Amino acid sequence: MRLSKFFIPTLKEEPADAVVASHKLMLRSGMIKQLTSGVYSYLPLGLIVFKKIEQIVREEMNTIGGNEFFLPALSPNELWASTGRLDDYGDTIFRIKNRDLVLAPTHEEVFTSIAKPNLISYKDLPQMWYQIQTKFRNEARPRSGVLRGRQFTMKDAYSFDSSWEGLGESYKLQDKAYRNIFSRCGLKYFSVTAFSGAMGGSESEEFMVESEAGEDIVAISEDGSYASNIEIAVSKANIVSRNNSDLNYEEFYTPNIKSIDELADFLKISDKSRLAKSRVFVNPSKEDNNVNEYVLVFVCGDDEVNETKLQNIFGAAIRPAHPDELMEITGADAGSIGPIGLKKENIRLVADLRLKDSDELISGANKNDYHIKNIDFKRDAKDISYYDLRVVKQGEYTIEGISKIRVTKAIEVGHIFKLGTKYAEALDAKFLDKDGNENPVIMGSYGIGIERIAASHIEQNHDEKGIIWTGEIAPFKIMLISVNPQNKLICDSAESVYNDLIKQEITVLYDDRVDVRPGFKFNDADLIGIPIQIIIGEKNLKNNHVEIKIRCSGERIIICKDDLICKIIELVSKY
Ligand code: ATP
Ligand code: MG
Predict the structure, then answer these.
(1) Whose CA is nearest to atom 19 of ligand 1?
(2) Nearest bound ligand to CA 208?
(3) Among protein residues, the one whose CA lies closest to atom 18 of ligand 1
(4) What pTM was computed for the model?
(5) SS (H, E, C) 258-308
(6) Using one digit for the tens of pLDDT, what is the confidence trace for 183-226?
(7) Cβ(24) – ligand 1 distance below 6 Å
């Protein structure tokens, strides 16, 4: 491809509204252009990369027996209502105003509706179906460029099995394919166990790329034996010991003390574990009687409530109480709430396992500006139940107590779920087993974000000058720079190298632009980040030499023009 004919609007300046590296560099290298918040046009350079990723994904899906489909983005409301997801997705689903249709954020329902009349016997199973298609999600905060778009490309795959063992096999095949895909895309990745409750599944794994640009938080052990999304991560946490002092509880005045830190300062203590932090949650009624369940959650003062763990226990709909609800439920504002003297009756009390049967606790008095000390959960909160409810922290040990945990940010590039029978049951997709009994089809669902892979690659492979593509997803293998095409010797040599590379089927972007200063060409080459640059300039040519520059290391090789193609063939397999 000749740069003189290629539409690649590179930018010299940092785009003002981009924060993360991949967003800045995709804009600056002319890969994408924003149309509106979370919606991007893919320009030719970006499209080449995205298509390469799609092709890798397609090859790996076909290797495990995948059937490629292409389903519509539009789907009928009633199909989504039949699984309850028209409501569950809430505002995240785009609704068409003048038709009863939505723009699909995922395709479990549509694939299941195709399976239903077709996969009717155990002989029809297993099946692996997939598509590479545009998804629409009305993300509340689209940011970081294509890392979180409102329109993006996903490979979504679905397995259909007649047994749970079969699902296990399908899941393993996808897991292996995902590992091949991420390796081929040049990502340093790891997998973590993940929350699957909201999708109705049983087991799930997320593939993560460690990055400051990530919106997920993961807990990884130093010895590599443990990796989990923080949402469900567990650790070996110290139990707050029981002192058995049997002191009576006692209210005391704490003017304007609203936070645990303020309370600790006021009491002049550094260990906050006995300051029972209380938060009120509302679990909306599932029945018609409209009676909400109120849940008062306690964790140690040095911990945070893990809301995903709470959802796992009480269902996805549980939410923090609004400030005005707090007064109505407890009689106090946030910061003064506790287990004793609650305004409403029948409030469910739950506490983190660290607080199991603990005493000498301090918590709010359900009266603004007052706290109560010497609370004994065993004595004073008899109906309390205990669960793991806390967020794991950096430096804690794994459950086995062997290795320390590191907490870091990561980008979720893929997700595999064992869905089970949720969708088959909702849509009545059944098959006849060997004994002639009807059973729901057992499903798995497997998603990968195409643009997110590209952005993650850039997050992991860039420097202050620009992108550094490596391996299979580089848009071109070679950047050929004709330093000054108006010089006949340079122009002829560059043209002949260009033709030789094409003959060798080595992809090349040829900077043949006239009237562009060499410095500008070099900067663009570094910005676009093609792995190997060939620089044809006057000084070297006089000695029949050309220069090769390796983008990732900056290494420069001066080589005789006659040996160039041989050397390039060798280098292309390396970078
Ligand atoms: P997230 O937690 O980041 O919102 P998700 O868990 O909702 O993602 P899935 O439904 O598991 O995402 O979708 C499968 C894959 O699609 C994700 O692993 C990710 O690579 C990609 N993806 C999801 N949402 C977006 C988005 N808004 N923009 C770009 N890619 C996305
Ligand atoms: Mg996910």
Answers:
(1) 449
(2) 1
(3) 414
(4) 0.89
(5) CCHHHHHHHHCCCCCCCEEEEEEEEECCCCCCCCCEEEEEEEECCCCECHH
(6) 999 999 999 988 665 445 578 999 999 999 999 999 999 998 99
(7) no
